[in-house]
Amino acid sequence: QQHYLIGQSTGEESASPGGFPTMLSHVRLVADDRVFLADSNLVIYSQNDSYLDKDLIEVDRPEITRVTVATNSDGGPGESYSIQVKRNPIPRKDTYVLSDVPEGQEGIEPSLKQVAEAALNFGFKSFAPAEESKDLVFDRTYVLETELGTVFRVQLAQQSETVGEGENATTTTKWFAKVRADWAGQDLSERGNIQRFNKEIQEAEGAELQRKLAIVGRFTAVAPYNERHTGWVYEIDSWRSTNMTKPKADLLQALP
Asked: Which whole-number Å values give the CA distances from 197 to 147, 186, 211, in the listed order?
């Protein structure tokens, strides 16, 4: 394994044709005094979490079949609702159906879409061991069901902090999440079921074969996913948590 020292220099010798100084990168091996000029600028990410995989949920839009939101109401009785996603062969013509819509009202399509797709590109900002976050109250839940069978469960907690007093007081709000996955698809936990499914794979072709292989991949990924995330709490973006915890009333409007 080779280790490199990397440095950057500016000066007249690195001036661009326009007369403006540009950054040049030089490299050398730790055990070698020779210095080489890199043919392009080198960017080194030095933050502690720069090389972490920050994806909490990796799912594509067509995989989402239903989401369920369970919220509290400022300390009062909680509520829950579901949004079913009905896929349309025409791109971007999917419909979003809200459960238990009161008479005389209808769902607001853009808002329903925001909630249903709140977990797309779902990553975290920072993380900490769960034992260091015992003061957080995870009283909201967002459940994402997928077409192949994986069910992602996100527990959410809100934390507000006020700095200063009186008119100078400012309040900041942070959101935190715990995640886990369950399997609600074809049962592959028993040996007999696995043998039958393997036979189906051998007989399948084309798109059906790819789908069955994807099911196996998602099923086998559940346990490692939970091993990775159990015991950790993640800080997430406020805009995302707002969509994951949106009250049902914000998704309704009167019929025209």
From this structure: 17, 9, 12
